Amino acid sequence: MIVFDKVCKKFPEQHLRSGHARAAFALENVSFEIKRGELALLTGHSGAGKSTLMRLIPALERATTGQVRVGDQDVSKLSRRELPYFRRKLGLMLQDQTLLDDRNAFDNVVLPLVIAGLRHKEASQRVHAALERVGLAGCERAFPAELSGGEQQRLQIARAIVSRPAVLIADEPTAHLEASLAAEIAKLFDGFRHAGTTIIVSTHDTSPFDRYATRKLHLDHGHLQ
Amino acid sequence: MNSWLRHHRDAVRHALQRLFDSPLAALLTIVAIGIALALPTTAHMLLSNVQQLSRNVSAAPQITVFMHANAPREAGVAVQRHAQQMAGVKEAKLVTRETTSSRLSQAEGLAEVLQVLPDNPFPDMVVITPSSFDEREILALRQELQHQADVEQVQLDAEWTRRLGALLRLAKQAVLVIGLLLGVALIAVTFNTIRLQTLTRQDEIAVSRLLGATDDYIRRPFLWFGSLQGLFGGLVALGIAWGVAHALSEPVGALAGLYNLDFHLRPLDTLDTLLLLGSSAALGWIGARLTPEPALRK
């Protein structure tokens, strides 16, 4: 389902104070395959390259060399015109993907369906189902600022799963959450996995996901261990 | 309804929502656009009215030959006959001094004046309609008629309408230039409004891109916003032009009455109204379309 084949990601040269320039390798020769219906955990210290790897899957970054494939699509070769339609097949929960403060919970969650051009009635049904699934039924009219940190996190999950994606990519989905809330979210992800969704979770703290993970990938300074 | 239409419907809804999110700022911008558009619109409306008036007054050139006050009737008849035989003359009519006096005595206020005068002060006249509109031929006719016996003066009657026509053409060019300049101003105002909006909506643009929004999807609400803002500005301009027409209608009608003219100031007709609203919306669209791509690609 998700294949990384000898992927390298090098960022442009950084100019150091000493006057020297050096190329920053975020990922070096990374290869792995996550099969359909797996829940893969991606771990590693800060700066190990987790976020870069996660951003390569929806083509927010492009691999310098190597190949990234999702399903039968070679992500590295997607044109600018094809990219939006590819991203509609993914459920994204990234750190820089915030909730929109001026829209209520319903409008935040319905956004992927509006973008995909779904009929209002069907979209509405799906939003209610997604909110119910993450335990936010009845919160449709609440604005993000009126929700707790855990509820906001669950709202992001609802938005990520509302379009019933084949692949769910979650970068630090349990960051800053209490242990009980983190365990709740991990359980939710397990439910999605059993429904056939392929999930890749990047996290510092693996404990909430340990019992559900089918695979663990550990990154160290851009190298897969 | 297919998804393309649904996207447009949502984009219109979002654009209207953005207008109403900051009503005072939106109102001020729309009023500024409306006033800018009102200037060429009102000028165009007034010019169209004046043009209509000049069309109603005969624009066909006429040459009036005034005989000496003491010239015998035969002299006038001779000029008329001579004119009828001249090349380039369509018609030549003798208007006797008695006919002129009789006509003018029917005009209000002039009858008393004419009664006070001891003699009929008007000369015989020969009114000539040339068959050609060519200025050189008409001037040649005038030259020849000037040398006829007992002729006091030869006057080209259509001269003032030609001058008015030239003035109107000049004024229309000026209105067009002003309209173009203010159109550019409308584009600039819309461009700046949209640019500011893209800055305040970076989060929304970024999130939408991550969720699979295309360039067209991102741009659509901004294009509708620009078009609607322009359209509302056009409506304000239309209101101002209508107000000017309404305010001037009575005094202009009274002034025209003094010249025995049946003239009423008309507001913009349907075609001009549609043209104004369509072009103001189109200019707003252009202003929004000019928003640089990078602002929408975050």
Give an overview of the whole structure.
The complex is a heterodimer of chains A (225) and B (298). Chain A folds into two domains: 1-89 and 166-225, Rossmann fold; 97-164, no CATH class. The model of chain A has no long low-confidence stretch (mean pLDDT 88). Chain A contains six helices and ten strands. By secondary structure, chain A is α/β, with parallel strands linked by helices. Chain A has helices at residues 50-56, 83-87, 105-116, 120-133, 149-161, 179-194, and strands at 2-15, 21-34, 39-43, 65-70, 73-74, 90-93, 167-171, 198-202, 215-220, 223-224. Chain A is globular and about 50 Å long. Chain B has a four-stranded antiparallel sheet. With 298 residues, chain B is α+β, with helices and mostly antiparallel strands. In chain B, 71% of the residues lie in helices and 8% in strands. At the A-B interface, helix 2 and helix 3 of A face helix 1 and helix 8 of B.
Entry summary:
The complex is a heterodimer of chains A (225) and B (298). Chain A is an alpha/beta fold and 225 residues long.
